[in-house]
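How a chain folds remains the central question behind the approach discussed here. In the encoding step, the backbone of a single protein was reduced to a row of integers, each denoting a local shape. We regard such an encoding as a compact summary of how the chain folds. The sequence in question and its structure tokens are set out directly beneath this paragraph:

___
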Amino acid sequence: MSKQSPRAEGKQSPRAGGKQSPRAEGKQSPRAGARQVALMVLARVRRDAAYSNLALSGELSRQRHLSSADRGLATELVYGTLRHQRFLDHAIDGLLKSKKALDPEVRDILRVATYQLLMLDRVPRYAVVNEAVDAARRLRGAHVGGFVNAILRRMGDNPPSRSACDDLALRCSLPDALAREFVAQCGAEEGEKLAEALLLPASLIGRVNTTRGSREEAATTLQGEGAKVEPVDYAPAGLRISGFGGAFESDSYLHGLWTAQDEAAQLVTLLLEAKRGERVLDACAGVGGKATHLAELCDEPVVCWDVNARKLQLLEEHALRLGVRCETRVGDFTTSGDDVKGDFDCVLVDAPCSGIGVLRRHPELKWREASNRAELVALQRRLLTRAIAALKPGGRLVYSVCTITEEEGPQQLAWALERFGEVSLEAPTDDARLLGLAPTGELRLWPHRHGMDGFYAMRLKKKE
């Protein structure tokens, strides 16, 4: 990291190429406010390709002095700025006199303030501008503070209107290619509904641990802790939870009565229909949302593979909290060798993917996914190949991705059926609601249609 002298700080240009001040790299006061927290998180997302939810959670855990209102504001600023980033940049760039690239740290300050000015009514306008100007002065000096002040003062004179914009990509803050893909998949009208749905905040959905109580009992406990709850539409153990600021510090969560998992992810696990006594493998277990659900359903240890040792450590902690059994294996499932044999009744491949279906939760992914989608498709096929080999005759496999792209979903099904004559598509047999969603064994979930994360899943059966 290059450093900047105090004298140079006051002469720093707001344009690209300026050196970074020590305070800009996270050395602010340990008692940061909501906007400072948001700026630190956005810098990590942009600079380090961090996941927004993890960066935000880490920063909030360090800023324990923040009130619940300030925590809520910091969260709103991070996700709102990331969701609407392209439109915010359009508003900012329309007020710049020069086309020279803007200093990314200064742009972050302008994005957060512009989001507040154009899309939030929580804070008075003068306070938003003053806070942004102060942040710019601390970061780059008085000259840059004046520049930020001039931009934001003019922002209110003639703010751009999203509703008057004909460009779907700009109106819904999407990359051009992704906007075209939505329209090609769904048509113009529904493609716009999909894009708009992905701009909305995602609800907190809990999955009740049925080994420790029914959904009704869990709902009563959560209500006693101050939460508002209602059952979801399809998943039998799902609850929509709101008004619960300390959800993950509550007794009900810490004692394993429930865990956080979107309804779509719950339905993917249910599609496998793992039964008691069956031998189950999760090939890409991650932190264990689906693996712990499978362990609960089959009441047997689930074998959990992942290349990330830290994620498997978190999986073990979740399994302990929920009182279920998982056997973790660190390594690349595609090259697992003799550790995986063809004797599993059920295999889940929740494969790495572009993540377009979870943009409500990870809005930063829309600016990262296009460059590596072909690599992801190739990896998904290697995982499928190994998973089919791991199945015993008559065994079931579910392949899933938290995305809505054709090449990571339906095209992977066509490839698998053509490549492997020993498998066929199979519909679920036990759950009428799930059968209604996946009548042939293909499950497609959409944020704008179902009010949950976007997922694709398919269920295959290996011949006897």
About this structure: Residues 309 and 330 are 6 Å apart (CA to CA). Residues 1-13, 16-30 have pLDDT under 50 and may be disordered. The first strand starts at residue 204 and ends at 208. The radius of gyration is 24 Å.
